[in-house]
Each structure stands twice: as structure tokens, then as C-alpha cells.
Amino acid sequence: MTNGANGAIPGFGEIAELLRRSTVLIHSGGRGSGSGVIWSSNGRLVTNAHVVRSTRPTVQLWDGREFEASVYSRDALRDLAQLRINARDLPAATAADSSQLRPGELAIAIGNPMGFVGALATGVIHGVGPLRGLGSQSWVQAEVRLAPGNSGGPLADAHGRVVGINTMVAGRLALAIPSNAVRDFLFATPNDGRLGVTLHPAAIPQPAGRSKAFGLVVLEVEPESPAALASLLPGDILLGTEEKRFASLEDLARALQGNGPRVLRLEFLRGDYQRIRRVTVQLGNPLPARSSVAA
Q1: What is the pTM of this model?
Q2: Which candidate in 27, 35, 79, 157 is catalytic?
Q3: Average pLDDT of the residues in 219-241
Q4: Which pLDDT tens digit goes with each residue over 76-130?
Q5: What is the C-alpha to C-alpha distance for residues 138 and 201, in angstroms, rounded to an integer?
Q6: What are the φ/ψ torsions at residue 189 (nearest 5 degrees)?
Q7: Active-site entry in 28, 98, 151, 291
Q8: Domains defined along the chain, listed by start
Q9: pLDDT tens column, 261-281
Q10: Catalytic pick among 35, 50, 126, 251
Q11: Which helix (H) or strand (E) holds 78?
Q12: Catalytic residue at 41?
């Protein structure tokens, strides 16, 4: 998007500045950092789950103030996290209805890539919907240039209203979690079904003559999480439960739903694609005993 195109939008500079003020810088362990969005003026923030690597991340506002945040809720499957900071009268962003987006609309991304705080990128919306290889989850797809550090920041329309949370890059497209999915996450009914893993969908090779199977590759395991207590490791591939194979991330989300102490029996692969392993994971309120070891 050229400067001339930007200049054709009345008040574009003011729109971009307001969006910058609603964007935060998040430090959460390690050398890297990410972005987040001020969702409400009373201290509620939204970012990607993969940006938050500690229970007490540090949040820096546009005016330089820093706060220690608490992780209020987290959904690794949707890659969303809700943070809270002890602050009031913050410049909250305005969310738009992502279902109304159309290809060709202007897209504005704000983030903190490579240490550049409040960096702005513009482009156009490419589409909204699922992408092949990423399950049935819907994505806002935009031709906007993103870099490490943009994750968790806002993707907005020409009016500065947030239409998605920037999450990853696929080819030349930026992928953002739609704002409507963020609303669902924030106002979801209580659900303590949490594995504590970061996952990526993948096609699993099969013996000759058989089509590839769907699996969820474990990229990270949070310490002391249900997955860690069950001895699941990075590199393991989740196939499904004893009753049903997974065909999408949503299948695992449905299997995790519920409240209170309960167990989930998972089938997975580790190293050998021919040997299916099984593990019992304890969900809900933690018990003193350690969960069953992956076998």
C-alpha cells in the first residue's frame, strides 16, 4: 500500500496513532518479545498464547509505563491468551465484526517486530475462512508484511477497528485470529480442559497405498502442565482419543471440554510411525498423584 493510498483516507495518521496507543509490548521470558491489544480500558489485554511463556509477563504501554501482568485465561488450541494488568482508563481498541470483512479492504497491522516498537504495516484483506492444512479454524488472511514480534498485535480495518489478532505468516499472507473468535474466547463458559501444549497440525506419512493421516505435533510442553505430568514431549504427535481420531484442532478442543477432575486417554506417536502409544492425562483440578506415564 503506497503512501498516496494511505493519504487518500481521511485522518489516516490519527487512526494509526490511536491504534498504536491500543497496542502493547509483551516480554515473557527469553530474548524475544511480542505484541498485545488493550481490549478494555480496565486492564484486559489480548495476545497470542505462544507469546506468553511465563505466568507473570511484563507489559509495556505506548507511554512507556510497565506493568506485571497476570494470565487470566489461555487457550493454546486457538492460540489466544487473556492478560490483566492493574491499570484503569487505558486507550482500548474497538473491535469490528470480522464476518463482515471482504477481500480487497484495507488492512492495518501494528506490532513490535524486531524491537521496533509501534511499527505499522498496511495491505489488503485477501479472504476470511479456513486454510488447507490448518483444520477448520477460520483465519483473516491479509497481504500484510509481518515479522517476529508482530504476533499478538492487532490487524485492523481502515477505521482502526480490530478485525483480528496477528498470529503467523503462511507464504506471503499474514494470518490473524478473527475478532469474533476472540470475543468467543473472552466470554466462553468455564472450561478447565487444558493440556498445556503448543500444537501444529500436520499430515502424517502412512504405509504405501494409504493416504496420510492427520496429527497434531507437540511443539512445546509447559512445565507442570497436564501434558508434562503425563510425560508427553515435544515432537510427539497426537492422533486422537481411544474413541475417535482427530481431523482438526477443534476435535481436540471438544475432547478437552468440561470441568472438574477427569481423565482423557490419548493416542500418539513418538519416533516410530508404526507404533501407536497411549497415555492417560489428568484434566481439571490437579491431584496429588502424578498422571500416568506415556507408554
Answers
A1: 0.69
A2: 79
A3: 92
A4: 778 899 999 999 999 999 999 999 999 999 999 999 887 678 889 999 999 999 8
A5: 14
A6: -65, 150
A7: 151
A8: 3-84 (2.40.10.10), 98-186 (2.40.10.10), 197-283 (2.30.42.10)
A9: 889 999 999 988 888 999 999
A10: 50
A11: none
A12: no
